Amino acid sequence: MSIFSFIFLAFFLPFQELNSNPRQKLIQDIKQAEKDSLKSALLLDLAKSYYAEDQDTALLLSNQSLEISRSEDLMKLQASAYNLIGVCYLIKSDFEKSLDSHYQALRIRESLSDSTGIMESYLNLGNIYYRLKDLPNAVEKFKTSLKIALALNHEKALGLLYNNIGSYYRDVWATYKRKVELDSAMYYLEKSLDYKTKFGDEGGETQTLIQLSELYEEKGDFDLSAELIFRALELSRKNKNNEGILSSLNRLSAVHRSKGEIRKAIKVSEEAFQLANEIGSPFQISIAADQLSSLYAVLGDYKKAFDYLSITDSYSDTIYNDSREKIREELSIKYESEKKELDLQKLANMEELAVMKIKYQKKLLIASILIALILLVLVFRQWKLNRKISLTNKKLVENNEIIKKQSLELEESNRFREKLFSIISHDLKTPLSSLKSTLDLWKSGILESGDMTYIVSLISKETSNASNLLDSILTWARTQMDENQKNFLQVSPRLIVDEIKKTFQLQIQQKNIEFLNLIPESTSILSDPDRLTLILRNLISNAIKFTEEGGRVMISIEGNTILVQDNGIGMDALQVKNIFSNKISTEGTKGEKGSGIGLMLTKDFADSIGAAIKVDSAKGEGTTFKLVLKS
Q1: Tell me, what CATH number does 101's domain have?
Q2: How far is it, in rounded angstroms, from Cα 483 to Cα 480?
Q3: Where does the Histidine kinase domain start and stop, copy by copy (predicted)?
Q4: How many CB atoms lie within 10 A of CB 335?
Q5: Which of 170, 475, 483, 532 sits a CA distance of 20 to 30 A from 274?
Q6: H-helix or E-strand spanning residue 612
Q7: Dist. CA 473–CA 597, nearest whole Å
Q8: Using an 8 Å Cβ cutoff, are 163 and 123 in contact?
Q9: If 0-12 CB within 10 Å is exposed, 13-18 middle and 19+ buried, where does residue 10 land?
Q10: Other CB atoms closer than 10 Å to residue 353's CB: what's the count?
Q11: Which of 85, 97, 100, 99 is CA-nearest to residue 134?
């Protein structure tokens, strides 16, 4: 967490509005005040005019106001006095006393249900924990305050809280250096700056300018960073805000250092160190000394660097030690205990009030019970009726879903069978008709021997395709009739591929295709051999069909996936999408005919053995079918 991450917030303490003349007027009014309540309020106003430049005087006046408000039981004034005392101690870096005072203020404000005061107390408590580098506790307090500010639409408080949230993102960014946190920090801080400028909150504006200056420096915009910090320094000096002056000087020193102006940076840090000693702030002395130690080390003046480092260590030990951590925990526990006691007292008062009302309630009790019983009977009868109706409706809906599902399945089955019969009637009938016609011509003596040789080779192709199709259809039909009878065995995919190669040996030779079976002989897989053979045969047939002359078909295995790859004509994205449902058969590279159903059957067979088929293809780059077997 950056040393500049502390945002001082006391949004009910407008120190810039009171100069020396109003102070004299307040002193006169205090002397002339007849009522203690008025005197207490005036003392608090006078204290507010001093807290930024002279915390000791502000503490003296605040304690006088607190003493009077206690004697007169002026709870709201007591809370305001505790709040101002906590702010003064925070500036003096006395964090334990600051925590104690703010918890006292919060306890009173919660007892009064003072939403605005509660919001302010949580805000200031968050600041203290932020200063102590207890970031989780600080963020928790800020979030609580933010919820109340949003509910109240308190724009001034929202401006301050945006500042704190921006500081939180800045600290996260400083740790992880992620752009999203840097952008968030700048967004919230610039939003906060708009609010503070709008309300003339020059003290808060100073702190936001300092933080934005640091972020712009990190982005490398040194000129804008320096411009913002000079503006912050001008506001702080105008309002005699020592805290703001010190923070501005420390930031300006850092900007000079980033620009390589080490001498200027040392001059500014020495000014900050002197001022921190004058006001007696260990926290600010530690910061300035740390900067000077680092700067002198850059110049090679290691003696001065060591001297200032010793000062830094001594004041750091004073501020952060184990005993203070223990005191902070005790203060939190003390506040929670006191809050519980207050809640118990409220409960006791409520019980006393309940006793006073009990007689009246008894008179209403009997009538209420009778009415309740009647209503219960009516509600129970209606509930039974509604439940019966609900169960009936649910059953109807379930039946409708089942019928709808069965209807869709039947419709799909009918479409598939229509396609199947269409193919059988055409793709099987055509080659048989061709064969019959050719034999009739040969028989009649019209065809000569040379013509017959050519025609027979053509018929051979068609009858081969018809034979493969018929085999696929018969196997598919058998599996449909005997769906549950799957014969899973340990089989050798290499031997299956070798047998399939023999079936297509003629096509392979005619197209001069390089056919590679890369599956190791030792490979064994668990599958239904008949269904697996049909799947691979269709995939290999498809690869041969769409591979050009001199091409390559390669079958391999990776884990539980068998790959059928070719370097053929390939497919575009639309063809790949519709490949298992396409009703149109595409001709092969040598005009090979197909039925358009081979891959549809292949997909069905793969589903039946729990396998999946994936396709990778690109136009002109070949196709790879991946058969992913069940593990």
Answers
A1: 1.25.40.10
A2: 5
A3: 423-631
A4: 18
A5: 170
A6: strand 612-618
A7: 9
A8: no
A9: buried
A10: 9
A11: 99
CA distance 237 to 219: 27
- Each residue's pLDDT tens digit, 150-200: 898 888 888 888 888 788 888 888 888 888 888 888 888 988 888 888 878
Q: Which residues pair with 124 in a beta bridge?
A: none
Q: Give the C-alpha distances (Å, rounded to integers) separating 389 from 376, 377, 383, 384, 397.
A: 20, 19, 10, 9, 12
Residue 625, strand partner residues: 564, 615
Q: So what's the pLDDT on residue 624?
A: 95
How many whole angstroms separate alpha carbon 101 and alpha carbon 126? Answer: 13
Between CA 512 and CA 492 the distance in angstroms is 27
Distance set, CA 245 to CA 94, 521, 549, 605 (Å) = 19, 83, 86, 81
Residue 23 lies in a domain: yes
User: Residue 420: inside a domain, yes or no?
Assistant: no
Label residue 611 left, alpha or beta by phi (over 0 means left) and psi (-120 to 50 means alpha): beta
DSSP codes joined into one string, 213-273: HHHHHHTT-HHHHHHHHHHHHHHHHHTT-HHHHHHHHHHHHHHHHHTT-HHHHHHHHHHHH
410 pLDDT tier (thresholds 50, 70, 90): low
Chosen domain end from 56, 80, 112: 112
pTM of this structure: 0.39
Return the DSSP state at 119.
Answer: H
> What pLDDT band is residue 415 in, cutting at 50, 70 and 90?
low
Other C-beta atoms closer than 10 Å to the C-beta of 316 total 16
> What is the C-alpha separation between 327 and 600, in angstroms, rounded?
78
* Residue 600 placed within a domain: yes
- How many whole angstroms separate alpha carbon 165 and alpha carbon 189? 8
Task: Give the percent of the chain with pLDDT over 70.
Answer: 73
> For residue 234, with 0-12 CB atoms within 10 Å meaning exposed, 13-18 middle and 19 or more buried, which class applies?
middle
Tokens of 103: 């918890």
Total of domains in the chain: 2
Residue 334 tokens, joined: 């003390």
* Residues in Cβ contact with 201 at an 8 Å cutoff, skipping those fewer than 6 apart: 11, 156, 159, 160, 195
CB under 8 Å, gap of 24 or more: what pairs does 601-607 form? 601/472, 601/473, 601/476, 601/534, 601/538, 602/534, 602/535, 602/538, 602/539, 604/476, 605/475, 605/476, 605/479, 605/531, 605/534, 605/535, 606/535
- DSSP per-residue string spanning 561-590: EEEEEE-SS---HHHHHTTTT--SPPP-TT
Q: Which of 62, 89, 112 is the last residue of a domain?
A: 112
Contacts 24+ apart (CB under 8 A), 299-303: 299/262, 299/266
CA distance 568 to 548: 6
User: Which pLDDT tens digit goes with each residue over 362-408?
Assistant: 666 776 787 777 878 777 778 877 787 777 777 777 777 777 777 67
pLDDT of residue 167: 84
Residue 398 has a CB neighbour count (10 Å cut-off) of 10
Q: Are 424 and 471 in contact (CB under 8 A)?
A: no
Phi, psi of 42 (to 5 degrees): -65, -40
Are the CB atoms for 186 and 33 separated by under 8 Å? no
Q: Would residue 418 count as lying in a domain? A: no
Quote the tokens at residue 329.
């925990």
CA 299, 305, 308 angle in degrees (round to 5)? 140
Nearest CA among 283, 317, 313, 337 for reference residue 95: 283
CATH number for position 552: 3.30.565.10
Please give the C-alpha separations between residue 216 and each of 190, 210, 229, in angstroms, as whole numbers. 12, 10, 11
